[in-house]
Specification:
Length: 216
């Protein structure tokens, strides 16, 4: 059982109305944490934005720290929901990997996304569960989506059998490392990384050579 799960209050997920209230609080928490930062965000303000009471927030989440960790996981799920799934990507694996990489770089490098990442980084050392929640939902979530696409490519014979999760991680690490770091450092044109683009193309070309299905 995770730290977040042990901190959940007694009303968490009990009824459809409770689950809707939980979502309302998560949306309000995301807005308030984003606007004020973790230290200055208050449960009173989150309850006000959610249209509920401070007691209800605590009944659902138990503590401010647990709520923030849940908000991180919720934000990660929203992030993954913006990504293309296997059916949305081109059938050719190289094109599909490039399309997925381009979309994730676009989302990760957006100003609001970068601000949110900075917020998590600021608090992660003192509250590790917060960073862990975002990593598991967003980073590993994106990795799972791309891995499912690669597994579909294997199933239809477009790629040789391989560790799709490892391949997905390799592609995403190469695609996002430069633009994300430049964005976090507030450098201009964070997505305009010619070296990073070449590195991604070289990575995909190498993978396609290694994973090309064998004739016969």
């Amino acid at each position: 059982m995770t730290q977040t799960e042990t901190a959940r209050g007694p009303l968490w997920g009990r009824t459809p109305a409770s689950r809707q209230r939980r979502r309302d609080i998560l949306l309000a928490g995301k807005k308030v944490f984003f606007q004020s930062g973790y230290p200055l965000a208050s449960i009173d303000r989150i309850a006000e934005v959610a249209g509920t009471t401070k007691r209800t927030v605590y009944d659902h989440f138990g503590s401010k720290e647990a709520l923030f960790a849940e908000v991180m996981a919720f934000a990660g799920e929203q992030f993954v929901g913006l990504l293309p799934n296997a059916d949305d990507l081109p059938p050719a694996p190289a094109e599909g990997m490039r399309a997925f990489a381009a979309r994730i770089v676009e989302i990760v490098g957006a100003p609001d996304s970068l601000r949110f990442q900075r917020l998590v980084i600021t608090e992660a050392e003192r509250h590790p569960a917060m960073g862990e929640a975002l990593y598991e939902s967003a980073v590993l979530g994106a990795e799972r989506v791309l891995a499912l696409y690669l597994e579909a490519c294997v199933a239809r014979g477009a790629l040789a059998p391989h560790d799709a999760t490892a391949t997905a991680r390799m592609v995403l690490d190469v695609a996002t490392s430069g633009p994300r770091l430049r964005g976090l450092l507030a450098m201009p044109d964070a997505a305009a990384d010619a070296v990073g683009e070449r590195a991604l193309n070289e990575t995909i070309a190498s993978l396609m050579q290694r994973l090309a299905p064998k004739a016969g």
